[in-house]
Amino acid sequence: MKRYLRRTLVALAAPAAAGAMYMASPATAAVATTAAPAAPAAALRCHASMSNSRPKDYTTIDVNIGTVRYAGVTTVAHYKTVNTKHTGKANAKGNAEIGYYISGAKPGYRVNVSVTVTSGRSRGSCSTSFIPHR
User: Fold this and answer.
1) pLDDT, tens digit, 9 for 90 and up, residues 52-98
2) Which stretches of 1-134 are assigned E, i.e. beta strand?
3) Which of 71, 76, 107, 113 gives 117 a disulfide partner, CB atoms 3.0 to 4.6 angstroms apart?
């Protein structure tokens, strides 16, 4: 019996709710449309590599990034004891080079480099790594 009543109430409530949508004022309709969540932005293309994956101590290496043109680029190198952040911008071809000076890094410890690219509301991420030696 409860199931029958529940179905009846749902059947009666649905047309009333639908009618309320058509009777809404333009101001209410505008609020309802703006309150809807925006679709997530598409992820940006991101590709990262190191100019030298086995650099010597006290040398400079580059993180080479491929993405969309003029995207903002942020890299973070995760050393054993510290994280080092650098920023830059991709050129008209979507390429960027972010330099890192290797000084006193622990030899043999893999340093992961996180890369984030942004353009407008779109974001993308990728990573690469290198292993310094003496």
Assistant:
1) 999 999 999 999 999 999 999 999 999 999 999 999 999 999 999 99
2) 47-50, 59-66, 72-78, 83-89, 95-102, 111-119, 122-130
3) 71
For the domain with range 47-130, which CATH number is right: 2.60.40.10, 3.30.70.260, 1.10.1240.10, 3.10.105.10?
2.60.40.10
CA atoms of 62 and 100, how far apart (whole Å): 6
Identify the H or E element spanning 6: helix 2-22
- Per the DSSP assignment, residues forming a β-bridge with 102 are 59
> Count of alpha carbons within 13 Å of 39, Cβ hemisphere only?
3
How many other β-carbons are positioned within 10 Å of the β-carbon of residue 63?
23
Look at residues 127, 104, 125 and name the one whose alpha carbon lies nearest to residue 116. 125
Confidence (pTM): 0.69
Compute CA distances 87 → 3, 14, 25, 107, 118, whole Å.
62, 54, 49, 25, 11
Pick from 105, 96, 81, 106: nearest CA to 46: 96
> ∠ CA(88), CA(94), CA(97), 5° rounding?
40
